Amino acid sequence: MIPNFYEAIKTWISSDISTDTKDLIIGQTRVIIVHSIGIGIILLNCRRLSNITDIKRVLFGYLIMTALILTNIAHGIATDQGGPPMPVIMLYAVGALIGSFGMIRLRE
Length: 108
What we know:
The protein is mainly α. The chain has 2 domains: 1-48; 50-108. It is 76% helix and 0% strand. It has helices spanning 5-9, 19-46, 52-78, 86-107. Helix 3 packs antiparallel against helix 4. The radius of gyration is 17 Å and the shape is elongated. 3% of the residues are buried.
């Protein structure tokens, strides 16, 4: 059964907001939830990696994904189409920094 995201967040959305804005908020919430679950599953599966080459591949893939997400956010902000709230942007930026630090540490 697919959960109804509107029911989950309706207490935080005022009825004075237009339907288009509600749909946008629900869509962004859905994307953030699914992305967070996906990253969590990837990280749980990566705990068992012991081969340095495999760890580098996972980190490189994560860095590419984060770069694409940050590019998409920057494009949305630059073209006045909007972007996620600042805490979400900071989460991706910090994640990219941690991933970069991990790649640098693996090269040593």
